[in-house]
Amino acid sequence: MKYLEQIEQFLKMLKIGLTHASMYFTEHPIYQKTVREVHRELQQVLREKNPLLIGVSPDALIIDNHEWKNSRLTEDLAVFFHTRMVSRIEFVDGITEQELHTFLSYVSLSAQEILSLGGLGKIFEEKQVAHVHVSDLDYSHLLKNAGVYHKDIWKYLLRSAARSQKDEEMKALIDNFETVVSSLGKELFQEAECRAQLRVFLTHLSKSQKSTLKQCSKTILQYLLRDRDAVEGKIPVEDLRNFLTVLSDAESADILWDEIAKGPDFDASAFSFFLTLLSSKNHEIIADKVLHRLDSVSTEKKHQMKSRLEDLFSTAFSSGPREASQVYQEALSAMFEAMSDEGRWVFDRENARKNYRYILLALLDEKKKSEQMRRIAEKISAETIHAFEIRDRGYLAACFSLLKRKDDSFRSELQEGLRGLDEFLETKVLQGEYPSGMERYLSRLKKSSYGPRTYIQKITQASSVSPALLDAFLRFYPGETGRLLEEVKTRQAQASYMTSLAESAAAADSPSSLRMLCGLYRDARLYLRRVILRVMRRMKQYDIDFLFEVLSGSEVFLKREALAILAGIPGARARAAEILFRVPNPFGIRENLLSSHIALADEFSLSEARPYLEKLSGQLWFWHNKTKRHAQEVLRKWHEKSD
After folding, report:
1. I need a surface site. Which of 180, 275, 377, 407 has the fewest CB within 10 A?
2. Are 9 and 2 in contact (CB under 8 A)?
């Protein structure tokens, strides 16, 4: 009876501890006192039963084969742990207050925050909490119902499948691969870790499921063409090509035809990207098969498709590989020579308007007089607005390139003539309707017609922050970043919103956006701090002092993200090694921390850490055995690689 009373008392204190962990910061006296009390009650239980195993069901706890149910206390705890996908918790005698503090801090995070960190089991493994073990539930069952966690769950399952390579985990991805790609979207390709996990998944398929592998590669190519702005120029092309090597020329031709047939979204720049991705393919075969598909469509559709093919295959603004582009142009010429127009002439109004737009650009390029410039610019303004509406990316690229070149000599004339275009662009930004991937065209806007308050309200009230909106705000009002950060504090608990804010700041990739990310990091929760450091990897800007500060912190998984950036900065590597290994370790009290630092040095091949590892490998005292063996192992591996 005494043991059951101890269990109940411990559960009461555990619930209080979880509540306080979500209410108070870690240094708060009330929270610290609560941790001590939970630890005292747990030690009482462990004296009677070691280890203490707590199973979790949706509405009950199972302790020592006894189901604790039908009480508000146990039901609340069961729901709490179940929503965080915990199936079992094991407390082992010897648990310290610090380990219990770590357990309470992380288990009290929201379900989405926990998912973004890889699940509680992985978190405590990374934190090297030796006396608490958490088993996660199967996350895939959550996917049977619609919910806000899909993206995080798919990312978790992809990571888990890549690590274990078990057939049952792979099957969940295979059965839902289109959903995986559409849910994760650009993160699947922009994040190096996700790309590596995707390669592991595809390699697994190549060994036993070739047909499934081809279907998955088709899905990847279709996504890359549809959302190319998220990847083009941001990810090494070779990394993307690796996902497409199994596609045959015929399969590539089918995808190209399907994309062209969908309509104007597949434009000249999309076609160029297709050629770049599949530069290793036999484009003579692909072009021939695409053109032969014309025989299978109706007469009316044939003329429409001929116009589309002519526009794409012979465009003068294509930036694709020259040899591949030439193949398609020659195939098109051969087709026109071989087939008649069947006595029909079809007037293509949109194509005529497109030609008119390019004629205006040519005129602007030739004119030298200010008044003529202004009049042509007014006409270009109207046509460029139309091009934005229909997503004519090829024309927009040519137009803004020319405007940038002419701006130095005819700035006032162009600004006057293009005033309507500027107003249109800013209105689209504030209405949240600015086309994704076209943020670079905002650089021509020199000033805003609205005040900073308008932008701050739009940003803080949006469901997610568009890159265009944040880019415009930072461009116009870089000195107002502090006000924005102060106001977004009220939305700290909204993971998807805060993630979109961080990603949009990284997309802007400017000194102002970097300062904003550093400021956002200061008050961010752990999951968001990790997101911020990861998006910083994609930026050309960096704050080396900020990264060193993170590296000097206490969270190993955050240090890893900071080191991932610092390792790519030659002048920072030596200082990073010094910070990691200047940790004092009297009587081995920081063996676990130093061992995690050795693992980081190994992961990022931080050769600058060699002197520190050599010193650690020669330690004599037995309480340093863990770091001594670990350092020796890494040095041996590095030596073998150098040979």
Report:
1. 407
2. no
